[in-house]
Specification:
- By secondary structure, the protein is mainly beta.
- The strands form six sheets. Strands 8, 9, 10, 11 and 12 form a five-stranded antiparallel sheet that branches. A five-stranded antiparallel sheet has the order 14-23-16-17-22, with no helix packed on it.
- It is elongated.
- It starts with about 20 loop residues before the first helix and ends with a strand.
C-alpha cells in the first residue's frame, strides 16, 4: 500500500524511514485530478491564435499525469511554407529533462500524432494549417482525444464556452486576473458587454423607444420575452374625439446567439390619425391606435387592443403598458385635442 504524505523520522543509523520522489507526488495528484489544460482562472489558458507569419500561445496552466506546468509568458512560433502542424505541450519526465516544453511540430500533409510513450506525454493544443506562410488555427483544447480541460475526477471541466471571447469570460468570472487595459477593452466593446450583461443573474433588458427601424442581435442563446406596443393615434380632425391607444403583444421566443431580428418602433399618429405599427421581425407586432379604434396585438401569447378615447372625461386612450392618466409620457398613448399621441416601443428581456 502506498502512503502519502507522512513526516519522515530519522533512524539511529542516520537514515530516514520515509522518502518520496516525483513519481509519488505525481501519482498523488493524478488520483485527485484529471489531466488537461486548466482554465478555471483564465479562459485563454494555453490558447493558440494566428498572427502574421506566426502562431501565438497564451500563458496558461496544465496538469499532465500529475505533473504541473505553469507558463507565465507568451510564446511565439514562426511559420512558413505550406504544411500541417500542431502546437504541443510536452511533459518529459526522463532524468536528463524533467520539464515541460511548448513545441510546434509537423512538416508534411498530415498532422503529427501526439507522442504518448515512455517518459513523454503530449497534449495537442491546436491544429495549424499553414498556406504559403499564412496560418489558420483550430483550437483543440476541448478535444479530449487530443488534449481536454483538467478537472477534479467526477466533476465537469470548468472550461470556457467556445462562443464567449476569453476576455469576456475572465471579465465575468475572474476580473482580478485582468489588467486595467483588458477591462477597458471589454467595457468599450458593445457586443462584448451585451454578452456580459446577458450572462448576469439580473435580467437582460433592451428597450427601443424611439420610432424607427433597428436590428437586434441576440447576445446569447436562449429564451427572450418580447413586448411590442403600437404608436398612439391622433385625435379626430375636429380635435373633439380623443384618439385610441396602440395595441400590445407579448411573446416568448427562442433565439440563437448572434441571430439578428429587425425591430420597428411605430410613431404616433399624425394627420391621418393612425399610429405606426411596432414589430419584432415577423414574430410579433402591434398596430397603432386610430382616432376611432384601438390598435391590435398580433402574434403574441398575450395580445391586447389599445383602449378607446373617452369623450366624457375627455381623456385619450391608453395602451396596455401605459395608463394615459398616470403616465402621460408613456408609450402608445392616443392624442387629445391639439396634442398628438406618443410613439410605441419594443422591449426585449430575459
Amino acid at each position: 500500500m502506498y502512503n502519502y504524505f507522512f513526516q519522515s523520522k530519522q533512524m539511529p543509523d542516520g537514515k530516514f524511514d520515509r522518502a518520496y520522489n516525483q513519481t509519488d507526488h505525481a501519482r498523488f495528484y493524478d488520483e485527485l485530478h484529471r489531466g488537461g489544460v486548466l482554465a478555471n482562472k483564465r479562459a485563454d489558458s494555453f490558447l493558440v491564435t494566428a498572427g502574421t507569419g506566426e502562431v501565438v500561445v497564451s500563458p496558461g496552466a496544465a496538469l499532465v499525469n500529475g505533473y504541473m506546468a505553469i507558463e507565465t509568458t507568451t510564446t511565439h512560433f514562426a511559420v512558413s511554407g505550406t504544411k500541417k502542424q500542431r502546437v504541443m505541450l510536452r511533459c518529459d519526465i526522463s532524468d536528463d529533462v524533467r520539464a515541460f516544453s511548448l513545441r510546434l511540430d509537423g512538416s508534411g500533409t498530415e498532422y503529427p500524432a501526439p507522442v504518448r510513450a515512455g517518459n513523454v506525454y503530449e497534449l495537442c493544443l491546436a491544429n495549424v494549417d499553414v498556406n504559403a506562410g499564412v496560418p489558420t488555427v483550430t483550437d483543440t483544447r476541448a478535444d479530449y482525444g487530443l488534449c481536454g480541460f483538467g478537472a477534479a475526477w467526477g466533476l465537469p471541466a470548468y472550461q470556457p464556452p467556445t462562443d464567449v471571447p476569453a476576455l469576456v469570460w475572465d471579465y465575468a468570472l475572474f476580473p482580478d486576473s485582468q489588467t486595467p487595459d483588458q477591462r477597458a477593452m471589454v467595457e468599450s466593446t458593445p457586443d462584448w458587454m451585451e454578452q456580459y450583461n446577458a450572462s448576469r443573474t439580473s435580467r437582460f433588458l433592451r428597450v427601443y423607444a424611439t420610432p424607427g427601424t433597428y436590428t437586434f442581435t441576440a447576445p446569447g442563446t436562449g429564451d427572450y420575452i418580447v413586448e411590442v406596443v403600437g404608436g398612439g393615434g391622433w385625435s379626430s380632425p375636429t380635435g373633439l374625439t380623443p384618439a385610441a391607444g396602440g395595441g400590445y403583444a407579448k411573446k416568448l421566443l427562442s433565439l440563437a446567439r448572434g441571430q439578428q431580428v429587425a425591430v420597428t418602433v411605430g410613431a404616433a399618429g399624425s394627420s391621418d390619425g393612425i399610429g405606426g405599427t411596432s414589430s419584432f421581425g415577423a414574430y410579433v407586432s402591434a398596430t397603432g391606435g386610430r382616432w376611432d379604434a384601438g390598435g391590435a396585438g398580433i402574434g403574441g401569447e398575450l395580445s391586447i387592443s389599445g383602449s378607446l378615447g373617452n369623450n366624457n372625461l375627455p381623456a385619450p386612450g391608453a395602451s396596455f403598458l401605459c395608463s394615459a392618466g398616470a403616465y402621460p409620457k408613456g408609450f402608445g398613448i392616443g392624442g387629445h385635442g391639439a396634442n398628438i399621441g406618443t410613439g410605441g416601443c419594443v422591449i426585449i428581456s430575459r
